[in-house]
What we know:
translation elongation factor activity, GTP binding, 2% helix, five-stranded antiparallel beta sheet, Transl_elong_EF1A/Init_IF2_C, 49% strand, protein biosynthesis, mainly beta, Elongation Factor Tu (Ef-tu), domain 3, 2 domains, Translation elongation factor EFTu/EF1A C-terminal domain-containing protein, six-stranded antiparallel barrel
Amino acid sequence: MLVTFAPVALTTEVKSVEMHHEALTEAVPGDNVGFNVKNISVKELRRGYVAGDSKNQAPRGASDFTAQVIVLSHPGQISNGYTPVLDCHTAHIACKFAEIKEKCDRRTGKTTEENPKSVKSGDAAIVVLQPTKPMCVEAFQEFPPLGRFAVRDMRQTVAVGVIK
Length: 164
């Protein structure tokens, strides 16, 4: 099987899949496995990279993405240009709030304000986020583990969100 590592687009062949040092013929969702790949050293892989089937929805890096965020606790207001750290799966990457598209109701998802200047604690919003370096993310509807994130700043979680 060929796998691609995103966001760097490294493609290689899997030699074996193992769980607890025993070879497996296949792995199912939820299995914690390791795999042996050809021609790639461990130094070429970093925390936050995502491996996927090269021939079936291969993962790729995103230069920006739209997400719904809920601001939990922020001392001031969040406006365009704010750049906290996003924790998504195992990646920890600074992301800029490029555009706050709309404020919405937390429960119904209905738009309450178009193009707001800022959002504050308790608000939910649809925003465009731009990672400072390539990051692999997926829509929450398609791949929930790769579509959830936490926004961290000042050593605390200031917001949580899902990718649209």
